[in-house]
Amino acid sequence: MIISRKQAQAIALYAAALSKSTPFGSGKNAVFKALNHLGYVQIDTISVIARAHHHVLATRVSNYQPNYLSKLQEEQKILEYWSHAAAYLPMTDYRFTLPLKKYFGDHRDPWPKSDKKLMQQVYDRIKTEGPLMARDFSGDRMRKGEGWWDWKPAKLALERLFLEGSLVTVGRSGFQKIYDIPENVIPSEIDVSMPSNIEFAEYLINRALQSLGIVTVNEVCYLRKNIKVDVKKVLSSMVKRGQVVRVGVHGLAGQEYFVSKTNLDLSFRVQKKLHLLSPFDNFTIQRNRLQQLFNYDYQIECYVPKTKRKWGYFCLPILYGYHFIGRVDAKADRKAEELIIQSIYLENDKYKSIPLSQWYEAIDEFAKFNKCTRVKILTGNDKEFVTTLRSKF
């Protein structure tokens, strides 16, 4: 079965909760609904604007407040661990963190060897005293080059215990993790049994179909090891049962996609709303997917040497309806309460016809989200457009 690219895009946008404004409503419960629907929200340290986990949720939740996440973690509704990267996950997905924890426990070669005695001491102290942070432990930093991220031994021990599942986090203070033992944190009703390979594959597939809508095998397995065979096996079974349909997308010859029967049968309307998305948004994180489905070539350049950057340090994808229409390099000057648009690029001249009110609303909302009261627009690839947009602020 072949579907149009526009239909594939509509399914993807609907699944990503980007086809209409703030689909989950507002408030803390809306944040939980959004995170539970997306399956994870990536945590990132870059803070030139509001951090990624807040940005992703603010895109989908009206009047989002950063303390909603910490409150949900206090209520034991969400947890922090790794998805494809550091992330917040629904607490109900706890058992599906266990395979990676087992991997870290069984495969220590890729990581610097940690003192087992120190790890036990760190664990015992937290078990006795309750939640602690790395700064609660004494110890000098390792000499440069001798330790993972040059961390002091106790901090390295804490992180190893966290990765292996002997410790969990109960929150963060100043972006530093607060650790506790699982028995004090994981609710008694949560399933803590190790999933089989097939169960884990089913989990990845169901999460991908729910949050991405239409997927390839590689997209389901994104940054996961040794799971592709089981994912293919489960997908084939789901196709035979009629739960999932195998489709092609017009213009993408040879690429096999999978979509739930329910989503394939629905008709989605995509609202024309302008979004400034996070580079770490669940919808944008798989760059090859963006290129194939939306013909949008995107790269985050904060890891690229300054002299080789084309778009800017932290360029954000701009989505409008079905189309990625540009990118904007933004920085929040928190002291001056000013959002600085260092550059704004349009992918095509035709996007200048988008109502200025859409641009103003999106940038103004983004400024307020970043606690900024003013907006400064510096430059872009279309001087006339930049001048006109600048006049709105």
Structure in words:
The protein has 393 residues and is of the alpha+beta class. The chain is built from 14 helices and 14 strands. It has a 5-stranded mixed β-sheet with strand order 10-11-12-13-14, with helices on one face. The protein has a 4-stranded mixed β-sheet with strand order 1-8-9-7. The protein has a 3-stranded antiparallel β-sheet with strand order 2-4-3. The radius of gyration is 22 Å and the shape is globular.
Put the structure in a nutshell.
The chain is an alpha+beta fold and 393 residues long.
Defining key terms:
Arc Repressor Mutant, subunit A; alpha+beta; five-stranded mixed sheet; 14 helices; four-stranded mixed sheet; 14 strands; single chain; 3 domains; 393 residues
Topology readout:
Elements: E1 2-3, H1 5-15, H2 28-38, E2 41-42, H3 52-58, H4 67-74, E3 78-82, E4 86-90, H5 98-106, H6 116-129, H7 153-164, E5 168-173, E6 176-180, H8 197-212, E7 214-215, H9 217-220, H10 228-240, E8 244-249, E9 257-260, H11 261-265, E10 274-276, H12 287-294, E11 315-320, E12 323-333, E13 338-346, H13 356-369, E14 374-377, H14 383-391
Parallel strand pairs: 1-8, 13-14
Antiparallel strand pairs: 2-4, 3-4, 5-6, 7-9, 8-9, 10-11, 11-12, 12-13
Helix pairs in contact: 1-8, 5-7, 6-7, 8-10
